[in-house]
């Protein structure tokens, strides 16, 4: 004989379990938006803030790409049609909304990648920039991962208000 209330418990548990993929996808999108925003932050000559990308012309930052499933190896070509400031061609900062639109069909647990494929990206990542002597991706990811720990715990560990337990 089933325990009284067990059917209600099972029903509530199934409802919570069905919501997990949607919660995971939302968490993935939020994490990618934060990481992309941090990577797209220009760093100054003093290396401030402690994360982000160097910006001389902006091509490196403008070439950040977000993709699902496989890496996007495209990058901004060297053009002279962007606005010129002094002797430097300035590329516009990337549009975070455009990057997030690439996640429109994202399903839970799909691999999401933020890539950088300009020809000199390895040099910058290797520390050959005064603005980012410790690289860009690893340095930014370290800062991001530390901040994400508290968010992950606070978000995932919080049950919905409808949970019977």
Secondary-structure map with pairings?
Layout: H1 6-39, E1 42-43, E2 53-54, H2 59-62, E3 64-68, E4 84-85, E5 88-89, H3 96-101, E6 112-116, H4 121-125, H5 137-156
Parallel strand pairs: 1-2
Antiparallel strand pairs: 3-6, 4-5
List the keywords:
165 residues; alpha+beta; two-stranded parallel ribbon; 5 helices; disordered C terminus
The first-to-last residue Cα distance is 22 Å
Trace the largest sheet across and list its strands: 1-2
**Gross morphology:** elongated
Oligomeric description of these chains: single chain
Count of distinct strands: 6
Number of helices: 5
Compute the average pLDDT: 81
The largest β sheet comes out as: 2 strands, parallel
- Low-confidence parts: 155-165
Which percent range fits the helix content?
40-55%
Structural class: alpha+beta
Strand content of the residues, in percent?
Answer: 5-15%
Gyration radius, rounded: 21 Å
- Helix and strand sequence: HEEHEEEHEHH
Please characterize this protein's 3D structure.
With 165 residues, the chain is an alpha+beta fold. It is built from five helices and six strands, in the order H-E-E-H-E-E-E-H-E-H-H. It has helices spanning 6-39, 59-62, 96-101, 121-125, 137-156, and strands spanning 42-43, 53-54, 64-68, 84-85, 88-89, 112-116. The strands form three sheets. A two-stranded parallel sheet has the order 1-2. The chain has a two-stranded antiparallel sheet with strand order 3-6. The chain has a two-stranded antiparallel sheet with strand order 4-5. The longest helix is centred in the first third of the chain and has 34 residues, at 6-39. It starts with 5 loop residues before the first helix and ends in a 9-residue tail after the last helix. Residues 155-165 have low confidence and may be disordered.
